C-alpha cells in the first residue's frame, strides 16, 4: 500500500465533483415540482392527507362529532345522599367542668369538646355514644345538635379500656338515629367516611372521606402516662382525617352504616393520614353494658403486676431465680388482702407465665385473656414460678 500524492488527489476531485452536484440539483427540483403541489392541495384547509374530499359534502361541525359528548355533572351522588342522611345523627359534645375560682363555680367551664353518635331513641329518651376521654372529668355534658340546639345530657357510664362512654338525654329534638353496621366484613381499600366536629364546635358536621387502611390494628395505650403500655386497643385504621374534636364521631361505610367510633390519630409531624376508630362489633357489647349497668364489670385477680420485660435480665436470674427457659411473664408486686389471688395463695414476686395453658409474655397478654376470654366466677389455672420452682394454682375469678 503506497501513499497518495497530495497534488494528484486535488486534481482528481476538481474534475469529478461538478457532475454529481448538478445531477442532485436537477433531481431535487423534479421532486419538489411533483410533491409540493400535492401537499399544498391536501393541507391548505388543515385536513389530513388521507381524508377524502367531496364537492357535494359539507365539512362536519365540531358539535355534531360523535366523539364529543356534552358534559353533565350530577351532584346528587350516593355519597352526598348518605352524608345528608347520617349527619343529623352525629352531634357535638361539650365537656363542662367547674372552675377553681368562686366566679366559675356557678357555671361550668368548657374543658374540651368532641363528637358523639345518636344510636338509639326510646320514647322521649335518646342515647349517645362517644369516647371516654371526651367526657372524662366532666361535671356536666352538653350535646350540640346539628342545628345548633344545645341539650344537657347525663353520663350513664364510661370505660377507659375501650374508650367508650354512653350518654342519655331528652329525645324530643331527635329525628335521626344512625343505622348500625358491622365491622367484621369490612375490607381494606373500601371507602370510609368520618363525620364529626374537628377543632371543636366551630367546624361542626365536618365530613372527611378516605378508605379502610387496615383492620385489627393494635395500638398501645398508656392510661396513667407513666411511659408503660397498660392496654392494647384493637382498632380500624383509616386515612379519612380524624382531628381533635372528631373523637367520638362516626365512621361509616358507603351505605351510611356505622362501622366504627372515631377515637384517635397519630399526632406526629412526619405522619399524615393515619387515624383509628373502635370497631363497632367490639363496641356494641360495651355500649349495651354501659347503658344497662353504667359500668363494665370485668373479672380480676386482685394483684398488682408488672411485665418481666420491665426488669433488667440480671434481676430475672438473681432476684426471681428464673430458669433460662423462661422468656416472658408478669411478676406480682402486691396482693390485695382477701382478693381471689390472696385466697389462692399467690405471693409477692411470684411470676405468672401461663393461664389455662395460654402463654403470658406481659401484662397486656394477661389482661386480654382475663377481659376477653374469661367470666366472673370462672376457675382458671395459673402456671407460676416461685423462687425458681414451677408450680400450678387454681383461682376463682372475682369481679372488679
Description:
Helices cover 21% and strands 34% of the residues. The chain has 400 residues and is of the alpha+beta class. It has four domains: 6-43; 79-170, Thrombin, subunit H; 182-285, Trypsin-like serine proteases (Thrombin, subunit H), CATH 2.40.10.10; 299-399, PDZ domain (Pdz3 Domain). A hairpin with a 2-residue loop joins β19 (379-386) and β20. The chain is globular.
Query: What name is given to the CATH topology of the largest domain?
Result: Thrombin, subunit H
Strands of the biggest beta sheet: in what spatial order? Answer: 1-2-3-6-5-4
Low-confidence stretches: 1-15, 39-65
Given this structure, which CATH class of the largest domain is correct? Mainly Beta
Tally of discrete structural domains:
4
Average pLDDT level: 81
Main beta sheet: 6 strands, antiparallel, barrel
- Percent range for helical residues? 10-25%
* Ends apart, CA distance between termini: 110 Å
- Anisotropy-based shape: globular
Radius of gyration: 38 Å
Instruction: Give me the strand/helix succession.
Output: HHHEEEHEEEEEEEEEEHEEHEHEEHEEE
Keywords: Hydrolase, Membrane, Protease, Serine protease, Transmembrane, Transmembrane helix
Domain PDZ: 285-388
Protein name: Serine protease
Pfam family, one: PDZ_2
Amino acid at each position: 500500500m503506497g501513499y497518495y500524492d497530495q497534488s494528484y488527489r486535488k486534481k482528481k476531485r476538481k474534475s469529478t465533483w461538478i457532475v454529481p452536484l448538478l445531477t442532485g440539483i436537477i433531481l431535487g427540483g423534479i421532486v419538489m415540482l411533483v410533491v409540493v403541489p400535492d401537499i399544498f392541495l391536501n393541507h391548505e384547509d388543515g385536513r389530513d392527507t388521507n381524508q377524502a374530499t367531496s364537492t357535494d359534502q359539507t365539512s362536519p361541525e365540531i358539535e355534531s362529532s360523535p366523539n364529543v359528548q356534552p358534559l353533565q355533572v350530577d351532584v346528587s351522588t350516593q355519597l352526598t345522599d348518605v352524608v345528608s342522611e347520617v349527619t343529623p345523627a352525629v352531634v357535638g359534645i361539650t365537656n363542662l367542668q367547674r372552675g377553681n375560682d368562686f366566679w366559675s363555680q356557678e357555671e361550668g367551664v368548657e374543658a374540651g369538646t368532641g363528637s358523639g353518635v345518636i344510636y338509639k331513641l326510646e320514647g322521649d329518651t335518646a342515647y349517645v355514644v362517644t369516647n371516654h376521654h371526651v367526657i372524662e372529668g366532666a361535671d356536666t355534658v352538653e350535646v350540640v345538635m346539628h342545628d345548633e340546639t344545645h341539650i344537657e345530657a347525663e353520663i350513664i357510664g364510661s370505660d377507659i379500656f375501650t374508650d367508650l362512654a354512653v350518654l342519655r338525654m331528652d329525645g324530643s329534638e331527635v329525628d335521626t338515629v344512625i343505622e348500625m353496621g358491622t365491622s367484621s366484613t369490612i375490607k381494606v381499600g373500601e371507602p370510609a367516611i368520618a363525620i364529626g366536629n374537628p377543632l371543636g364546635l366551630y367546624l361542626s358536621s365536618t365530613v372527611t372521606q378516605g378508605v379502610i387502611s387496615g383492620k385489627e390494628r393494635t395500638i398501645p395505650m398508656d392510661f396513667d402516662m407513666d411511659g408503660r403500655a397498660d392496654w392494647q386497643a384493637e382498632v380500624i385504621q383509616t386515612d379519612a382525617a380524624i382531628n381533635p374534636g372528631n373523637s367520638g364521631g362516626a365512621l361509616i361505610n358507603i351505605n351510611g352504616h356505622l362501622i366504627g367510633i372515631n377515637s384517635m390519630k397519630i399526632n406526629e409531624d412526619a405522619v399524615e393520614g393515619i387515624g383509628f376508630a373502635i370497631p363497632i362489633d367490639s363496641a356494641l357489647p360495651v355500649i349495651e353494658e354501659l347503658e344497662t349497668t353504667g359500668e363494665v364489670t370485668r373479672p380480676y385477680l386482685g394483684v398488682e403486676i408488672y411485665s418481666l420485660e420491665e426488669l433488667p435480665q440480671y434481676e430475672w436470674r438473681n432476684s426471681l431465680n428464673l430458669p433460662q427457659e423462661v422468656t416472658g411473664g408478669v411478676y406480682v408486686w402486691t396482693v390485695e388482702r382477701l382478693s381471689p389471688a390472696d385466697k389462692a395463695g399467690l405471693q409477692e414476686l411470684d411470676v405468672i407465665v401461663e393461664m389455662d395453658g395460654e402463654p403470658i409474655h406481659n401484662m397486656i397478654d394477661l389482661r386480654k385473656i382475663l377481659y376477653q376470654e374469661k367470666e366472673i366466677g370462672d376457675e382458671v389455672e395459673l402456671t407460676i414460678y416461685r423462687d425458681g420452682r414451677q408450680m400450678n394454682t387454681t383461682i376463682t375469678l372475682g369481679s372488679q
